[in-house]
Prior knowledge:
Layout: H1 3-19, H2 22-25, H3 29-41, H4 48-67
Amino acid sequence: MNIHDLEHQMEQLERAFDAAPADERLKLAPRVQRITNTLDARQQPIPCRLQRIQKTLEQDAFDDMFDNMPV
């Protein structure tokens, strides 16, 4: 996979993420992980927009964990 393919995947992912309702976003996490793993393996920086998505996914997962806890 070349850098242009990765860029295209990141653009698609960002559009899908922004369009998805909060409860559907977590399904995009594996795609985010694949792209970041590829960038890490190539020693490429993680773009800010991908970092934003990662942070939002982490927060969504954290919130979801507590939403399902009995009180």
